[in-house]
Design brief:
Length: 302
Amino acid sequence: MKIFYTDSFAMALPQDHRFPINKYALLRKRLTRSSRFAPQDFCTPRAATTAEITRVHTPDYLRRVQTGGLTAQEVRRIGLPWSPELVERSRRSAGATIEACFAVLDKGVAVHLGGGTHHAFSNQGQGYCVFNDSAIAARCLQAETRIRRVLILDCDVHQGNGTAVIFQNDPTIFTFSIHGRNNFPYHKEKSDLDVALEDGTGDAVYLDALQTGLIESLRRSGAEFVIYLAGADPYSGDRIGRLNVSKEGLAARDRMVLDRCRRARLPVAITMAGGYAPNIEDTVDIHFRTVLIASQIQKLYI
Ligand SMILES: [Zn+2]
């Protein structure tokens, strides 16, 4: 199974910054040490090109990101200090999701150990998201392969508001988001299918709601390809997640999603999306399990 990573593109954050940037390197280290993967499974992605990015983002927004021309308010909304390294990492992250998609055009599962930056709109970033990697990759599939219909399955605990708006009037890309009703973003956009959960929702209700949404999404989308955002932030111990889903519940979620995709013979590219547990190892645990489950299911694709 191909595993793309971008943690080697270092990006300096202030000491007290709340974004858990270290989770990516810790996750890769954990996967490497598990000796379940071959060294050649781990790949450094290319950067997304300007042409690829501007299929989704406005040329003006891209130019201002690129040159440090964002306003102070725009930078605040993104929540990460601007630097040339931030730009490079964001481009590589979009490139990693593209490459994960192209690694499994016919069948199977590939993973990007980052991405899921679903709060990025065509003309602005938000909530640690500069470019919308899922949207860029979906457009890339449409432009460069025979794939027309893509399902974006967003299981991060925050609504995929940027993705929802980008594809609002596009029947070829189906957006599904299962998230906490009271979570950021406080103004929700309209996905093709939204499932909003109450604070404290536990495993049973979560998995039941997911199953129903998943079945409906697969049926309505007519998808030929799935991009799955396997956010770790529905976890009960998450600092900002508000739900009460256990690590076992999240593993059951990953198995449910990937198993249904495999039965429908759909290729899947997985991104990690959010995860903000006070103990970073909990977030890493959850992402690690996602990648292991993906590699198990990858072997079952025929
Ligand atoms: Zn999130």
